[in-house]
Amino acid sequence: MRYPTESLEGWSELEESNAIHKVFKFKDFNAAFAFMTACALKAEKMNHHPDWSNVYNTVDVTLTTHDAGEVTPKDVELARFMDAHS
Question: What is the pLDDT of residues 19-67, one digit of tens each?
Fold first, then answer.
């Protein structure tokens, strides 16, 4: 992984998939869904989409730039957006 991710709090590096990962927990499903909606709109504007899943109040997120095969500034930008909106 070439792009530094140390500044991302709570994100772990997945060396085997050249990605970063974080699990977000919310008060309830509505809060989790609102988070996903805000992040989906940002991701669409960036044309950079997360691998994610939602179960009730939990959102599991993995970010990587598939074309580059590694974490890039786009992933870090989206991760920071997600942190700010969680």
Answer: 999 999 999 999 999 999 999 999 999 999 999 999 999 999 999 999 9
Q: Would you call 71 exposed, middle or buried from its count of C-beta atoms within 10 A (0-12, 13-18, 19+)? A: buried
Separation CA 22–CA 37 (nearest Å):
17
pLDDT of residue 7: 80
Q: What is the CATH number of domain 17-84?
A: 3.30.1360.20
Cα–Cα distance, 11 to 63 (Å, whole number): 10
Where do the domains of the chain lie?
Answer: 17-84
Q: Which two tokens stand for residue 19?
A: 């990605």
> Which two structure tokens, joined as six digits, stand for 71?
């974490």
